[in-house]
Design a protein that fits this description.
The protein has about 325 residues and is α+β, with helices and mostly antiparallel strands. The chain folds into three domains: about 130 residues, PH-domain like; about 60 residues; about 130 residues, no CATH class. About 55% of the residues lie in helices and about 15% in strands. A four-stranded antiparallel beta sheet has the order 1-2-3-4. It has a three-stranded antiparallel beta sheet with strand order 5-6-7, with helices on one face. A hairpin with a 4-residue loop joins strand 5 and strand 6. It is elongated. The chain starts with 7 loop residues before the first strand and ends with a helix. The N terminus is likely disordered.
């Protein structure tokens, strides 16, 4: 296994209804429910609508439960319980390619339907599916191998999750597992895996995003700038933590837009209700509560700016970017 001519290539089916796959699907749906709950819960809490939290939680549970069942139905009907892939194990790493024509057509159909229906969610899901039709990990990365001989599987994991599921055939499992162990030992791949999970740091940044975004909602209501921008900032702030650092630019743009709208609102000339014919600028009658709200919102915006600048300067990596770095080396 010292040159590319000795690469191991095999095709196999991923069992979609295996315990491992069903567990991953269930965890993905639970994560979806959690994200939906955090976003909607933040909006309701910021508006003081605490009695709406319980119905919101029930709705979120029902929606994600329906998606979970729909996923199982798609696995059973469209994919017939299996997903065809091809692995190529070489001296540089492992490449996993999707061979299922159903999966490829479904990904492209999601993009087309999303464009026609003007649904960013469907387009995003399709693009993510297309991007994952070929996945690669390099021995220069940072991960460890966890063998499961009873399932003919070797899981490649970083400090907090599985990066690649290497499904072997019964007749080549021992050869593949030995090759992975030899390559990783030669490149010292597992030695680069940090001892601590990064999840607490991601959760801490997520909590900061939520707390810093909270005062932006009453600010939007008080100064009549609409709830779209606070929700926009919250969503992209969380995406900055978990997906891509570059979303920090979007957060900064959203904050600048909301700040600009507040300034324009306060520069507006209004006619006095008590003294017709007398005009004033809105900021001239700001009260103590308004100033307090502006102060708290300013602190929250400052925290969001600090997080965004840190992300854009690479002081910390979003979870997805860090995972890609662990895979590529």
């Amino acid at each position: 296994m010292t040159d590319k001519t000795e690469a191991l290539i095999w095709e196999t089916d991923l069992p979609l209804f295996s315990r491992r796959m069903l567990t991953q699907w269930t965890l993905a749906m639970l994560a979806t429910a959690l994200v939906m709950g955090v976003i909607l819960g933040t909006v309701f809490a910021a508006q003081g609508e605490w009695d709406a939290l319980a119905p919101m939680a029930m709705m979120t549970g029902a929606v994600t439960g329906g998606l979970w069942l729909l996923g199982l139905l798609i696995m059973a009907v469209l994919f017939r319980g299996k997903y065809r892939v091809r692995y190529t194990l070489s001296n540089t790493g492992i490449v996993c390619e999707t061979l299922s024509t159903v999966a490829k057509k479904a990904n492209r159909a999601a993009i087309v339907v999303g464009v026609l229906a003007r649904s960013p969610q469907a387009v995003g899901a399709g693009l993510i599916g297309v991007s994952r039709e070929t996945e690669e990990v390099n021995w220069s990365g940072s991960f460890k191998a966890v063998p499961h001989p009873d399932e003919n599987v070797v899981m490649l994991r970083n400090a907090w999750r599985s990066l690649l599921w290497v499904q072997c055939n019964p007749d080549n499992y021992a050869q593949v597992a030995a090759a992975i162990e030899a390559h990783m030992k030669r490149r010292r791949t597992a030695s680069r895996v940090p001892g601590k999970s990064p999840v607490p740091a991601y959760l801490g940044r997520s909590a900061l995003v939520v707390l810093a975004s909270l005062p932006l909602f009453p600010l939007a209501e008080e100064f009549d700038t609409g709830l779209f921008l606070p929700l926009f900032i919250l969503c992209f702030g969380l995406a900055m933590v978990w997906l891509i650092n570059l979303f920090g630019w979007v957060v900064l743009g959203g904050l600048a837009a909301q700040a600009g709208m507040v300034v324009l609102d306060q520069l507006e000339v209004r006619e006095s209700m008590f003294d017709p014919g007398r005009f004033y600028r809105a900021y001239e009658v700001l009260g103590g509560d308004d100033l307090s709200l502006l102060l708290v919102a300013g602190i929250g915006a400052g925290v969001l700016v600090w997080l965004s600048v840190g992300a854009l300067r690479g002081r910390w990596l979003a979870a997805l970017v860090a995972d890609q770095s662990d895979m590529a080396g």
